[in-house]
Design a protein that fits this description.
By secondary structure, this protein is α+β, with helices and mostly antiparallel strands. It has three domains: 1-102, no CATH class; 103-144, no CATH class; 169-203, no CATH class. The chain is 37% helix and 9% strand. It has eight helices and seven strands; from the N terminus they run E-E-E-E-E-H-H-H-H-E-E-H-H-H-H. The chain has a five-stranded mixed β-sheet with strand order 3-2-1-4-5, with no helix packed on it. It has a two-stranded antiparallel ribbon with strand order 6-7. Residues 194-217 have a biased composition (Basic and acidic residues). Residues 80-105, 193-234 are annotated as: Disordered. This is WW domain-containing protein.
C-alpha cells in the first residue's frame, strides 16, 4: 500500500475535486522513481485515494498529467481479463484447426476417378466458394500433394550438413586426378576432343601405305639396336 504523501510531489496526480470523474474509479498514474530499475507507475482510486502498485481486478483509466484528466486512449482492462478472453477463444481456434487438418475429400489412391456427385466432393465446396478459380482437379491435386520435405546429408565425423558433391566419390582416384589435371588443362574438353576415343583407338583406324610401314619398322630396329649398343658400351 502506498500512502498519499509518497506521491504528493508527483506532477499530474488526479485531484479529488476533478469534475470529470469516470464510472470506473481506478486510474494508472506515472511518476519518476529516480531509479530506472524501479516501477514508474502506480494505481490510485478516485474516491478513497488508495494507491497501490498491483494492477486492480477491474478496468481502469490512464491519467494524463498534461491534460489533468484521463487519457484519450480510453478504458484499459486488467491483464488477467485479457488472458481469460484469449484462453476462451483458444479452444474454438484449435477446434477449427483440427477440422481443417482432418481431410475428408478426394484422394486418387482411394477413390480412383473423380466423381462430382460423390460425398467426398462436398468437402471441396467451401473452398470453391472462397476461391472460384479452384476446380475439382486443382482441389484434388492440392489434396494429393504431401507435406513439404527435404533431405540432407551429414558428415559422419563432424555431424554437420554437407553438399551432395562432398560424398565418398569425391575422393576416388579418378576424381582426385581430374582435379589435379584441371589446374593445367580442361580435362573434359580433352576427353571429348576426339569424340571420346583414345589415341590408340584413333590410330587403329588409320591406313598406312607400304612405304610408311617400312620406314616405321626401320626406325624401330634402329632404336632397338641403339639401345643394345648403349648397354654394351656402359
Amino acid at each position: 500500500m502506498i500512502t498519499q504523501e509518497e506521491h504528493k510531489s508527483s506532477s499530474g496526480s488526479p485531484e479529488k475535486s476533478a469534475e470529470t470523474v469516470p464510472s470506473y474509479k481506478w486510474c494508472k498514474c506515472f511518476f519518476d522513481p529516480g531509479d530506472p530499475t524501479l516501477q514508474n507507475f502506480y494505481f490510485m482510486h478516485f474516491d478513497t485515494r488508495q494507491t497501490q502498485y498491483e494492477e486492480p481486478n477491474e478496468p481502469y483509466w490512464i491519467w494524463d498529467a498534461m491534460l489533468n484528466n484521463v487519457h484519450a486512449s480510453g478504458l484499459q482492462y486488467p491483464t488477467t481479463t485479457q488472458q481469460t478472453q484469449t484462453a476462451s477463444a483458444d479452444p474454438a481456434a484449435e477446434q477449427s484447426k483440427e477440422s481443417e487438418s482432418t481431410y475428408q475429400g478426394y484422394n486418387p489412391k482411394i477413390h480412383g476417378s473423380y466423381d462430382p456427385n460423390a460425398p467426398y466432393a462436398q468437402f471441396h465446396e467451401p473452398k470453391k466458394a472462397q476461391d472460384p478459380t479452384l476446380d475439382e482437379y486443382s482441389a484434388a491435386a492440392y489434396a494429393a500433394a504431401g507435406d513439404y520435405g527435404s533431405t540432407g546429408a551429414f558428415n559422419r565425423f563432424t555431424g554437420r550438413f554437407q553438399n551432395a558433391d562432398q560424398s565418398t566419390d569425391r575422393h576416388s582416384d579418378f576424381q582426385k586426378s581430374g582435379r589435379q589435371l584441371n589446374a593445367f588443362f580442361d580435362v573434359d574438353a580433352a576427353a571429348n576432343s576426339h569424340e571420346g576415343r583414345s589415341l590408340k583407338e584413333e590410330r587403329r583406324g588409320q591406313k598406312l601405305s607400304k612405304k610408311e610401314i617400312q620406314e616405321m619398322n626401320k626406325k624401330r630396329k634402329e632404336k632397338k639396336e641403339k639401345k643394345r649398343m648403349d648397354f654394351y658400351r656402359a
